[in-house]
Amino acid sequence: MRLFTKYNRVNLVASILALLLGSVSYYFTVRYVLVSELDDNLRTEEAEVLDHVRTRNELPEPASYRDQRVRFEPAEEPVKREFTHTRLPQRRGRWEPFRELRFSVMVAGGLYTVYIDESEEETESLLMLIMLITAGMIVLLLTFLFMANRLLLRRMWQPFYQTLGGIRKFNLSNREPLPVQYTDIDEFRDLDEAIRQMTNTIIKDYEMLKGFADNASHEMQTPLAVINSKLDLLIQDTALGIEHHRPIQAMYDAIGRLRQLNQSLLLLTKIENNQFDQTETVDLAPLIEEKLQQLEDPVKDRRLTVHTDLDRLQLPMNGYLADILLNNLLSNAIRHNQDGGQVDIRLRERSLRVSNSGAALDFDAATIFDRFTKGAHSGGTGLGLAIVRQICDNYHYGLNYSYADDVHTIDITFN
């Protein structure tokens, strides 16, 4: 849930609760004031009745008006003086609310109970009108708060969303710092400044790391070439016996693996840094056929049987990375196969499957795509499938390995 939406909900719920509590309190306060006013009127009538009895020693005449009633009833014992709410019949059989004061009075040796009733209809009507006006004000206030939150707060948060969009578009390969966001909100300005400083530092560190990797790779080529040339001269020396050829060949192989390792690590670094951002339409089927032709010699040497089932599939990706992806998959299937085994390649609209026969892995299958993971008898660098995974991660392709019935299978799902 977005912060803006959550803030709106919390603010709206808090406003509704506060207004509801305020409305309830306001209702009872207004009602108390209006009822207190009725009680004052009843006390005034009580004082008039008592004054009439005291001066004339007789009860005043009963009164029955629309808004007020005074009546007397003989009583055997005094009643407690109290104010109550009651309902009395009016014309047309209607029952209306009244506020009633009841008390006892002695007149000429007789005890009477006095009932003074004051109509609450106008009070109820006034209270209802006040509550309707209050409800209307609450609805208007909530509407105003909702619109203000949607319009004003959205504008206030705009610099934050612009900064967030700049972070999402940030790419090390472009080496462009984030644009400056002008805002009068201190927190957003501090956030923008901190992010720009961070991205500038990242760009500098990236340039240093990239320069180190390029320079190290370049400088390593020179001593490797020197060692290789010296080995060429050494192996041509007629003074060497045949027993020296085997260690010289081992040095040749070690130099070849070192050169391949250097190239693979440099390639991984470039892929991770998104240096292959050019995209083109790559047709995988003919590219697979071309790779199989290039690998024809090792296939014949291992007496492998290759089965292909290729549908037409065009992908938007870097052509060089597509070539590396297929080369590593097919080379891996050939290298880790068994003599006289088979290789199956199936290409569908959204997937590529490469299977090869072979013995079970002698390491944890969950680490097969990790760097420098290889079997005990593997002659590779342990980076081939790591490069495959890095390419798939860059393009958000699904990658999976499985083994069943002496067959290794690698599936790539193109999203």
Automatic annotation (TrEMBL):
Instruction: Please name the InterPro entries in this protein's record.
Output: HATPase_C_sf (IPR036890), HATPase_dom (IPR003594), His_kinase_dom (IPR005467), HisK_dim/P_dom (IPR003661), HisK_dim/P_sf (IPR036097), Sig_transdc_His_kin-like_C (IPR004358), TCS_sensor_his_kinase (IPR050428)
Q: Which domain of life is it from?
A: Bacteria
Q: What's in the GO CC field? A: plasma membrane
Any keyword Kinase?
Answer: yes
Q: Which CDD domains match?
A: HATPase, HisKA
Give the location in the cell: Membrane
Q: Known catalysed reaction(s)?
A: ATP + protein L-histidine = ADP + protein N-phospho-L-histidine
Q: What are the entry keywords?
A: Kinase, Membrane, Phosphoprotein, Transferase, Transmembrane, Transmembrane helix
Major enzyme class: transferase
- Which residue windows are transmembrane per the record? 12-34, 126-148
Q: Which E.C. number(s) belong to this protein? A: 2.7.13.3
Q: Where is the Histidine kinase domain?
A: 215-398
GO terms, molecular function: phosphorelay sensor kinase activity
- Coiled-coil intervals: none
Protein name per the record: histidine kinase
This chain's source organism reads: Puia dinghuensis
